[in-house]
Amino acid sequence: MRDTNLELQESGWEELRKEARKIEGDLDVKLSSYAKLGARFTQGGSGYVDSGSPPIGSSRSWKSMEMEIQSLLEKLLDINDSMSRCAASAGPATSVTQKLARHRDILHEFTQEFRRIKGNINSMREHAELLSSVRDDITDFKEVCHQGCSYYVRELPSMEIYLI
């Protein structure tokens, strides 16, 4: 009876580990793609907004990718919790606790990396939006000045009478 219980725990542990490794691989790919999107912001020195052109990638695709990564991180956290319960019921096996610790470290590293990339992207987006806003203000100012100058140019002939 004890052997059957132990076998069930071991098979459950292995299934959880297999699922954790799969999600870790998926997270690695998604974080890499997310980082590449973030790197596009800094290419060319002008950010991701070029005058008159829309940002690279829609806001929806950014949010979609963030939500996918967040969901995978939550799944990995749940699996790690299940692995902890499985390891606790199996007893103090050194190799199991070491493997569990490694999976926790990987989750922590992925979480930190996601936060770092997300912060960088948000910072770059805010910077690009600020530059775009300033660019729009300059364009508006030039239009107002041009309209004002053209008014005075049109009125100049009628003002010459008073100057003589």
UniProtKB/TrEMBL annotation:
Membrane-related topology note: Single-pass type IV membrane protein
Subcellular location: Golgi apparatus membrane
One of the GO biological process terms: protein transport
Primary location group: Golgi
Top-level taxon of the source organism: Eukaryota
Transmembrane segments: none
Any one GO cellular component localisation term in the record: Golgi membrane
InterPro entries recorded: Golgi_SNAP_su1 (IPR023601)
Keyword Transmembrane helix among record annotations: yes
Keywords in alphabetical order: Golgi apparatus, Membrane, Protein transport, Transmembrane, Transmembrane helix, Transport
Keyword Membrane recorded: yes
Family: Belongs to the GOSR1 family.
Protein name: Golgi SNAP receptor complex member 1
Species lineage: Eukaryota, Viridiplantae, Streptophyta, Embryophyta, Tracheophyta
